[in-house]
């Protein structure tokens, strides 16, 4: 558990979107009228009855205040999150939800937005596309899935092709005659001023980061769903909590968050994998060993913020704003 303020939302409907992908429409209960607003690319955290907290991107149009819609892929390696949603959660049930956060915001003023989506990575991008449609701004989508049946929102996306400069390119790499999505070619031909976004499996994101390494960082955006490297559990440093003056020794085998929780201190946290940003804290002194996928390289270099669920320390001591 953590101290993030949460909402109780009712599952109004569950919809089949593609093989292995269901969408969930969540509505507020009276007397709550409007839900907290969200921008394109935002996600919500679901606090599940089995104790897990899982982040899911919002795929409905930013600006909607009466519902949140998420898409959930049934992960064969599920540790209980997607399996619970697919097998147990039913329309009419209530779920505990932390308000939206956004680590993957859309630049609404870009002359062109180019999206690369892999599998369930289409969910935040689908919300971004709806926002750009509302603004009448151009976008190109390159969407890869194993097969057409495993790709969500295909009909809706294909119907948008050609509207307001939109282009929709689908790649189904397990179908006859398929070619792999050529991410280096997409990045190499990115028009001046265009912004490029990627969300998908780790291998796709790594290829994206390589292909876009020479582009201006403020025009390159990506969101990971899962950790890419192990959490820092080497230990051997001290964390001082500036607000109370308490100091904790972080031993080998534990993260900073582990140590805080075992001392009865419960900062906000969610994914515990360095991908959601919920556990971010300000660093007042010391040098973190960043292992998250939320901060950009430039943000990491300032050493002003860190994710305490996965990052450690390169200095002997860290002073945190906790
Ligand atoms: S809890 Fe998600 S980044 Fe730390």
TrEMBL record:
Keywords: 2Fe-2S, Flavoprotein, Iron, Iron-sulfur, Metal-binding, Oxidoreductase
Database matches in Gene3D superfamilies: 3.10.20.30, Nucleotide-binding domain of ferredoxin-NADP reductase (FNR) module, Translation factors
Keyword Nucleotide-binding: no
Residue span(s) of domain FAD-binding FR-type: 4-107
InterPro entries, per database record: 2Fe-2S_ferredoxin-like_sf, 2Fe-2S_ferredoxin-type, 2Fe2S_fd_BS, Beta-grasp_dom_sf, FAD-bd_FR_type, FNR_nucleotide-bd, MRET, OxRdtase_FAD/NAD-bd
Superkingdom field: Bacteria
Pfam families with a match to the protein in the record: Fer2 (PF00111), NAD_binding_1 (PF00175)
Every 2Fe-2S ferredoxin-type domain range: 237-322
SUPFAM superfamilies on file: 2Fe-2S ferredoxin-like (SSF54292), Ferredoxin reductase-like, C-terminal NADP-linked domain (SSF52343), Riboflavin synthase domain-like (SSF63380)
Name under which the protein is recorded: Oxidoreductase
Organism the protein comes from: Cupriavidus malaysiensis
Taxonomic lineage: Bacteria, Pseudomonadati, Pseudomonadota, Betaproteobacteria, Burkholderiales
């Amino acid at each position: 558990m953590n101290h993030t303020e949460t909402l109780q939302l009712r599952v109004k409907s569950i919809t089949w979107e593609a093989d292995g992908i269901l969408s969930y429409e969540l509505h507020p209960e009276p007397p709550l009228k409007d839900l907290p607003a969200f921008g394109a690319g935002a996600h919500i955290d679901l606090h599940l009855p089995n104790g897990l907290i899982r982040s899911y991107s919002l795929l409905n149009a930013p600006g909607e205040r009466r519902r949140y819609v998420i898409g959930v892929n049934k992960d064969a390696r599920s540790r209980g999150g997607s399996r619970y949603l697919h097998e147990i959660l039913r329309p009419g049930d209530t779920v505990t939800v932390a308000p939206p956060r956004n680590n993957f915001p859309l630049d609404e003023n870009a002359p062109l937005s180019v999206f690369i989506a892999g599998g369930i990575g289409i969910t935040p991008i689908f919300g971004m596309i709806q926002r750009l449609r509302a603004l009448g701004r151009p976008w190109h989508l390159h969407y890869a899935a194993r097969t057409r049946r495993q790709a969500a929102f295909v009909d809706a996306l294909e119907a948008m092709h050609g509207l307001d400069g939109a282009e929709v390119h689908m790649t189904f790499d397990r179908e006859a005659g398929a070619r792999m999505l050529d991410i280096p070619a997409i990045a190499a031909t990115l028009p001046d001023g265009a912004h490029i976004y990627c969300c998908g499996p780790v291998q796709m994101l790594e290829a994206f980061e390589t292909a876009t390494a020479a582009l201006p960082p403020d025009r390159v955006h990506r969101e990971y769903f899962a950790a890419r490297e192990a959490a820092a559990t080497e230990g051997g440093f001290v964390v001082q909590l500036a607000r109370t003056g308490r100091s904790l020794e972080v031993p080998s085998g534990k993260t900073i968050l582990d140590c805080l929780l075992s001392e009865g201190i419960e900062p906000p946290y969610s994914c515990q994998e360095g991908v959601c940003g919920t556990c971010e804290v300000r660093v007042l002194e010391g040098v973190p060993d960043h292992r998250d996928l939320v901060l950009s390289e430039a943000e990491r270099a300032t050493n002003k913020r860190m994710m305490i669920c996965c990052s450690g320390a390169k200095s002997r001591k860290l002073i945190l704003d906790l």
